[in-house]
Amino acid sequence: MAQKKQNKRKIIRRPVELNCIFCNTKTEPDYKEYKLLEKFLSDRAKILGRDRNGVCVKHQRKLPIQIKRARHLGLLPYSQTV
User: Whole-model pTM above 0.85?
Assistant: First the structure.
């Protein structure tokens, strides 16, 4: 029996270069700098992963905690309103 060829397209994502903003400026993510934290949110206000925003591992672990603190205080949205 002949098998059918499956034509699957592979989605290729280009990795972002790891130029950590926090390492370059020698700072830490802080909930009070909500304008800077907005860069690490998608258009739907979801926290972007490390492969999408170019932050190092050390700061990526701290980043969601600070974003969640800013959300709790009302500085950042939980979700984007339409």
Answer: no
